[in-house]
Amino acid sequence: MLNSPVDIRLRISALWIAMLFIFAYVDLFSLYRPDVRADLANNRLAGFEIGQPFLLAVTAFVILPSLMVYLSLVVRRELNRIANMVVAGVYALATIGSAIGEWNYYVAGSAVEAVLLALVVRHAWSWPEPLAAE
Question: What's the gap between Cα 121 and its chain centre?
Answer without folding.
Answer: 12
